[in-house]
Amino acid sequence: LSLNGITKSYNKGKIKAVDNVNLEIKSGEIFGFLGPNGAGKTTTIKMIVGLLKPDEGEIILDGVNVWEDSLKAKSMISYVPDNPEIYDRLSGIEYLNFIADMYGISEGERKEKIEYYTNLFNIEDSLGDIISSYSHGMKQKLVLTSALLNDMNLFILDEPMVGLDPKSSFNLKEIMRNMCDEGKS
Fold it and tell me: Is 57 in contact with 4 (CB distance < 8 Å)?
């Protein structure tokens, strides 16, 4: 992942949230943004995943410009936002199947991954329940599971440990380490 001169302003250019950021993250690396609230971390993440267009600069993922070939770039990214908005009126399994359908994941592969990750995050017994009945932590685990269904090159998490119990946090860190060992970032 390469960020080249990324800049983003708000309020008609009066507030510069991100100012000429240059960054290169190599395959197999775990990288974290640290800084106070309002430092531009989430804005930068939203530009990387294609939710906000930079005012200046370019973002390249494995040779693909995120804004010139956005569908291809998005197919290589899984993103877990800091406050995921999910369909509360679906059951957990309906939501996971919806996400798997969007990524074109086969029935066999999705079944295997859903079983593995929901067991790992200890939400397998709640998949038939409507999402609105889930706690914040259960929703976070469901969104993490949905993000892990895709075979992505870049896994982007904004405040991923918020709401997770210690075991799930540990398991997520292990997943990230294994992904990096496979050359993903």
Answer: yes
Partners of 130 in beta bridges: 91
pLDDT digits (tens, 9 = 90+) for 114-172: 999 999 999 999 999 999 999 988 999 999 999 999 888 899 998 878 888 999 999 99
Other CB atoms within 10 A of residue 159 CB: 13
Chain centroid offset of residue 17 CA: 21
Q: Which is nearest to 145 in space by CA: 92, 109, 103?
A: 92
Annotate the chain with DSSP letters as a single string.
-EEEEEEEEETTTTEEEEEEEEEE--TT--------TTSSHHHHHHHHTTSS--SEEEEEETTEETTTSHHHHHHTEEEE-SS----TTSBHHHHHHHHHHHHT--HHHHHHHHHHHHHHTT-GGGTTSBGGGS-HHHHHHHHHHHHHHS--SEEEESSTTTT--HHHHHHHHHHHHHHHHTT--
Nearest-5° angle of CA 20, CA 161, CA 85?
Answer: 75
Given the structure tokens 């369909």, which residue do they identify? 87
